[in-house]
Amino acid sequence: MKYQSQAVAKYYFIAAIALFVGQILFGLIMGLQYVMGDFLFPEIPFNVARMVHTNLLIVWLLFGFMGSAYYLVPEEAETELFSPKLALIMFWVFLAAGVLTILGYLMVPYATLADITGNSLLPTMGREFLEQPTITKIGIVVVALAFLFNIGMTALKGRKTVITLVLLIGLLGLAVFFLFSFYNPINLVKDKFYWWWVVHLWVEGVWELILGAILAFVLIKTTGVDREVIEKWLYIIIAMSLITGIIGTGHHYYWIGTPRYWQWWGSIFSAMEPIPFFMMTIFAFNMVNQRRRNHPNQAAVLWALGTSVMAFLGAGVWGFMHTLAPVNYYTHGTQITAAHGHLAFFGAYVMIVLTMISYAMPMLRGREAANSNKSQVVEMWSFWLMTVSMVFITLFLTGAGIAQVYLQRYSDTPQAFMVVQEKLATFYWMREVAGVVFLIGLITYISSFFVGGKEAEEIA
Amino acid sequence: MQKTHNRNRYALRPCTVIYIILVSFTFITWLIGKSSLTGLGFSLAVLGIALIKGFMIGDYYMGLRGINSIWRWVIILWLFIPGCLITWAFVSAG
Amino acid sequence: MPSSYTIERRDYPPGDLAIWIFILAELLVFAIFFATYAFTRSNHVALFNHSQLSLNTNLALINTLALITSSYFVVRAVAAIREDKTRLCIRWLIAAVMMGFIFLVVKIIEYHHHYHNGINLRTNLFFMFYFSLTFFHFMHVILGMVILSAVAIKARQGHYSSTDFTGVETGACYWHMVDIVWLILFPLIYIMK
Ligand code: HEM
Ligand code: HEM
Ligand SMILES: [Fe+2]
To answer: Which residue's C-alpha comes closest to atom 19 of ligand 1?
Structure first.
């Protein structure tokens, strides 16, 4: 750690991992409810568990992004953070808002939560991923503004690099597109239309800039390859992400009542979206092959390479699978979508945050550059456990999805939704087993922070 | 400037000549359109002219002519593959 | 013919390799667009042929000439910098950007004309393709002009010389790409029926 103020990142990373555990627990609860319908009923209904699962995911990823930025920007700008105190205050505000919201979901019925938080004044609740009460949303905006101000001022007073610039644009975009969550028109078509401006333009637009910037940062640090080379790659990757991703939003506009040309635009442009993800894979492997040194933190290098591959698989391959309108006609909203959602979110954004934590945490905890060999071995185990089990979750869901599409939509004698779901129970059981392995991987990951602490650093 | 001689043995960049050819081809294409010459034959001729124009831009203007590697073929392939697909589509449409 | 017009043997294309990766990705998008257009047309020949009649080939001719000419100017700019004639290089670049402006203006006139006649994206399948393809290309012309202007500014600041002109070639290659795409687009959409 070069700058004292980078230490605030540690809070963000710890909170992120804690919420990550919560997210997975609720995933497992739901996984079980898929096959045992009344599990934990009426205490935790499926829809509530789903909300908690997905909201925790988004919130902990945001913690992860902010922590990454607090670590990355001072180091790139070669100056202390503008205001570590503001960063800490915002940490507690965000954590409190997050925890209160989750508790709200769990303790009172959703309609009551809407009532007591005054949703009727400015109705924004009730839409997937954006279920948060309006005051929580306002809280998120305040935290985001304070965060952007803090990071922006830091960047302004120090060295300006391409990585910081890309990261800042990504984070700014994240905040700007979130504003569309406040727009909640009566017209359902419009509602859906702009809902995707948050959801899609996040993960297939501005978040890709964040992903690219963090990946580039970790690669510079761990490979010692020339900054100029890495920056060039970064430029191309983000240009390609934006060119394909923005109009690619159209792959969500096929069946919601928008004009027909969206079927063409969405199909053609989103079919190109795998390109930037593919470039990222090539980029990461190229840089590691051209490395000028062997960084002692081999776990971080593994995470970085893993991110580039898994993001390509989850977003690129599994995204492409159902992105053309004639295919999506059959697969829309099936388990295929869930398979893709899991692998893409995990491969791209979960893994990039874990990459950054893996790189930064040893320094934040007072080590020179890396954890001991023992700790890294445990961490690498957790990498493989989580990655492989997520691949299996994806494969089981894909299997379930293909069967579902056939039985429920494609066959000459289509069957009813629930009839088909019954037949898919085996797939769902296997998904649940893979989910348990994922949890074991996560526990292994956390335990890697507690083993081998006293041993010397690994010198590669 | 000894080297210049050597280099000249390889392709020149006769860019002005190329420019004149490009402009003439463009006029031919336009004339075909103007005189309402339609049908498969004319369509494919016009396409062929366009592909040749693209080839000249790639080879001479971009300077791919002198490249020793796969990069030499980048533009040519890009013209060739869509060219084939378009031809196929037009032929199948009759 | 001065030496700067020669092409020497090398393994990599002129300009930065990075721009070539970008050019390839962009060309792929256009290629798919072209093929989709052609195959969709084969199912709606009458509609496409009829709709094509309302396009103005004269304006398209002007635009094709504008782009070809500007490509030529860019070649001259590269040649100039290879002879260390920085100011000449800048002038050729500005001329190329001016040609880009002509293209934009003419295209806007065309769009305005359609708009006036109540023709838009939703009119029919042909116009869906027409507007999508030409507008996507339109955006590339703008991006190309931005790149050429940036190169001109850097040239002015003295960043390039006869030994270091990769930047100029990088911008040049991107611009030629924009030109090539139009060279196919012009006959495909305006002429072939
Ligand atoms: C880091 C790991 C995980 C990520 C990133 C993640 C992400 C997501 C996302 C994005 C959704 C919404 C999907 C959609 O809208 O189509 C979702 C839903 C769900 N997840 Fe996860 N999840 C993870 C782990 C798990 C685990 C371990 C399980 C349990 C085995 C699980 C079970 C579920 C279930 C049952 C749903 C609801 C699907 C439905 O509505 O039918 N998730 N998850
Ligand atoms: C890291 C990037 C990505 C993430 C995190 C992601 C995540 C998701 C999620 C969670 C959904 C479900 C949304 C919902 O209905 O609740 C979804 C849907 C979809 N995604 Fe992605 N995605 C990514 C990239 C891509 C890419 C690159 C493509 C195309 C090549 C793609 C194609 C699709 C399509 C077509 C749908 C709609 C599925 C349906 O109709 O049900 N995604 N994505
Ligand atoms: Fe999307």
So the answer is: A27
Q: Residue A354 is which amino acid?
A: L
For residue C116, report the phi and psi dihedrals to the nearest 5 degrees.
-60, -35
Between the CA of A241 and the centroid of ligand 2 the distance, in Å, is: 14
Neighbour subunits, A (≥3 Cβ pairs < 8 A): C
- Quote the crossing angle between the two packed helices B74-93 and B40-56, to the nearest 10°: 170
The protein residue with its alpha carbon nearest to ligand 2, atom 21, reads A319
Min mean pLDDT across A104-113, A351-360, B64-73 is at: B64-73
How many of the other CB atoms lie within 10 Å of CB of A421? 19
**Ligand 1 atom at shortest distance from the alpha carbon of A28:** 29
pLDDT of A460 higher than 60: no
What tens digit of pLDDT does each residue of A338-356 get?
999 999 999 999 999 999 9
- Look up tokens 């796969």; give the residue: B70
* C29 CA distance to ligand 2 middle (Å): 20
Domain locations in chain C as residue ranges: 58-191
Option in A236, A269, A271 nearest C21 (CB): A236
Among A241, A264, A277, A282, most C C-beta atoms within 10 A, so best to mutate, is A264
- What backbone phi and psi angles, to 5 degrees, belong to A127? -120, 140
The C-alpha atoms of residue A149 and residue A142 are separated, in whole angstroms, by 11
Residues of B in contact with C177 (CB under 8 A): 62
Ligand 1 atom nearest to A346, measured from its CA: 5
pLDDT of residue C5: 57
What pTM was estimated for this model as a whole? 0.90
8 A C-beta contact, residue A237 and residue A214:
no
What are C8's two structure tokens? Answer: 């020497």
d(CA A361, CA A356): 8
- Burial pattern A335-357, b for ≥16 Cβ within 10 A else e, equals bbbbbbbbbbbbbbbbbbbbbbb
A277 near A311, Cβ under 8 Å?
Answer: yes
Amino acid at A235: Y
Does the bond joining A42 to the residue before it have cis omega, within 30 degrees of 0?
Answer: yes
Closest partner residue to C3 among B4, B11, B49, by Cβ? B4
β-partners of residue A457 are: A372
For residue C129, which residues of chain A lie inside 8 Å, CB to CB?
A: 264
**Taking a C-beta distance cutoff of 8 angstroms, is the pair C122, C78 a contact?**
no
Rounded to an integer, what distance in angstroms lies between the CA atom of residue C139 and that of residue C21?
A: 19
* Sequence-distant contacts of A261-264: CB under 8 A, at least 24 apart: A261/C121, A261/C122, A261/C128, A261/C132, A263/A325, A264/A325, A264/C36, A264/C128, A264/C129, A264/C132
Mean pLDDT confidence for A89-101: 96
Question: What are A215-271's pLDDT values in tens digits?
Answer: 999 999 999 999 999 999 999 999 999 999 999 999 999 999 999 999 999 999 999
Architecture of domain C58-191: Up-down Bundle (1.20)
pLDDT at B2 over 80: no
What are C77-125's pLDDT values in tens digits?
999 998 899 999 999 999 999 999 999 999 999 999 999 999 998 899 9
- Cβ-nearest to C183 among B54, B64, B88: B54
pLDDT at A455: 78
Can you give chain C as a three-state secondary structure string? CCHHHCCCCECCCCCCHHHHHHHHHHHHHHHHHHHHHHHHHHHCHHHHHHHHCCCCHHHHHHHHHHHHHHHHHHHHHHHHHHCCCHHHHHHHHHHHHHHHHHHHHHHHHHHHHHHHCCCCCCCCHHHHHHHHHHHHHHHHHHHHHHHHHHHHHHHHCCCCCCCCCHHHHHHHHHHHHHHHHHHHHHHHHHHCC
Q: Is the pLDDT of residue C9 over 80?
A: no
Q: Are B54 and B75 within 8 A, CB to CB?
A: yes
Q: State how far the Cα of A209 lies from the Cα of A207, in Å rounded to an integer.
A: 5
